[in-house]
Amino acid sequence: MEKNSVAIIPAAHEQTRSYDTEFRFRQDSDFWYLTGFPEPDAVAVIDPSNDKSPFMLYVRPRDMEMETWFGRRQGVIGAVKNYKADASFPIDKFAIDLPRLLDGHDTLYYRFSVDKALDQQILNYLSNQRLRRLKTAYPPHTIVDPTIILGEMRLHKTEDEVEMMQTAATISADAHTLAMKKVKPGMNESQVEALMESYMRSKGANGVAYNSIVGGGDNATILHYVENNMPLKDGDLVLIDAGAEYQGYAADITRTFPVNGRFSNAQREVYDIVLDVQLKCIDYTKTGNTVRARQNYSIELLTEGMLKLGLLKGKTKDLIRKKAYMKYYMHGVGHYLGLDVHDAGRYFTDQAAKSSRPFEPGMVLTVEPGLYIPPDDKSAPAKYRGIGIRIEDDVLVTEDGNRNLTERVSKNPDEIESIMQKPANRAARNSS
Ligand code: GLY
Ligand code: MN
Ligand code: MN
Fold it and tell me: Would you say residue 151 lies in a domain?
């Protein structure tokens, strides 16, 4: 932070799901990263020039009746005792304290347009101070959006964070392995979703990091298919994109495998191409390479794959120039992963020149190439129509390469078949 500055970082609020019920609360990622405080309706004030209380938390006060109805609260004592705030006050006092908190500081770190009510309090303060014509007032004259700074901090994971991400990854990977063992024709996509999410929560995850995608057959060609309510058919593939959230940290894994435990030749042909590209792009995710170069690399490799399968015709270079590959591969090869599934951090080192960012140790990125052949695509060989395949792992960039956090769930097709064919797994499937 700049000299003589102060930061105001709000917590999230509960969100209405319908009428008078709320979604399960999820803390704001920046607030969580900085404070670890789990409750809604709080504000952190960070003022390094305040010798006594550089870190203050405004929180919901203890309230017997409210707590009986809606759950326990830390209150101001808990905020100090359990969350290491130097001082804590009831949230109702925040608007009253605001002039005292901000006056005399040159810089205010605050992100507008996330918390509209808080925006209004800060705007009110600024306009009141303006009326005083700076004769007696000294409001901050520079307002800095802390998004980029916090994004940089969050982008490079500490050892502790890596450990939590590894836990999220391990729980998620094992949920995928469980699905491989249990899936059989006739099972509903919703049952697979329930099975995996139940496993995640039973292993200490707070829930899923994003809505699970369980798409059988050509549902796999819909990128954000989340209905998850169709029966899985013999002879089809199922694409599962599901990841747990552990201590706020996300995992993001996709596996695609045959519902009946055996790939058809056509499915295997497409699968082998996606897997080969995925392995190469994992290798590529290391210091020295850039995010954009990796994207281009995935496009080049997948375009060659499309040529091999007969999905496209022509020269690789021309097809890339004309973006012909976008018919079958229309998303990025990966993204930063952390507290948010599409995590904070800049993808460019120089926004004006759009210089792509090199991978750096401590970054975690997904690697998720895919091929999606629409069911009614007359130009594709008939045997490939309706096949959608994505394979996604989570990779930590290290000093000397990378570490695949989600390695423990199989993606080698022979290995997947042997897991699904194992007599014990087949027997369990047939008896349930
Ligand atoms: N599951 C979201 C993503 O893969 O980006
Ligand atoms: Mn995913
Ligand atoms: Mn992803």
Answer: no
Residues 213 and 254 in one domain: yes
Give, for ligand 1, the residue of 239, 298, 392 to mutate: max count of ligand atoms closer than 8 Å to Cβ.
Answer: 392
Let me know if 224 is a catalytic residue. yes
Among 172, 252, 340, name the best residue to mutate to test ligand 1's pocket (greatest count of ligand atoms within 8 A of Cβ). Answer: 252
Q: Give the length of the chain.
A: 432
Catalytic residue among 189, 252, 343, 393: 252
Would residue 252 show up in a list of annotated catalytic residues for this protein?
A: yes
Residue 432 pLDDT: 60
Instruction: Give yes or no: residues 55 and 100 share one domain.
Output: yes
65 lies in which domain range?
5-145
| Backbone torsions φ then ψ of 379, nearest 5 degrees | -85, -10
**Same domain as 212, residue 72:** no
Of 145, 164, 184, the domain-final residue: 145
Q: Which residues contact 186 (CB under 8 A, 6 or more apart)?
A: 231, 232, 234
The DSSP call for residue 338 is: S
Q: Nearest ligand, CA of residue 224?
A: 1
Angstrom distance (rounded) from CA 410 to CA 257: 10
Active site residue 119: no
Structure confidence at residue 129 (pLDDT): 87
Q: What is the DSSP letter of 134?
A: T
- The verdict on the CB of residue 343 being under 6 Å from ligand 1 is no
* Phi, then psi, of 76 in degrees rounded to 5: -70, -30
Rounded distance from Cα 51 to ligand 1 centre (Å): 43
- What confidence score (pLDDT) does residue 426 get? 74
Q: Could you tell me if the CB of 339 is within 6 A of ligand 1? A: no
Question: Do 244 and 100 lie in a common domain?
Answer: no
Rounded to 5°, angle at Cα 193 from 406 and 416: 45
* pLDDT single digits (tens) 248-297: 999 999 999 999 999 999 999 999 999 999 999 999 999 999 999 999 99
Question: What is the predicted pLDDT for the residue at 133?
Answer: 66
Quote the pLDDT of residue 27. 98
Q: Kindly give the parts of the chain with pLDDT less than 70.
A: 133-134, 429, 431-432
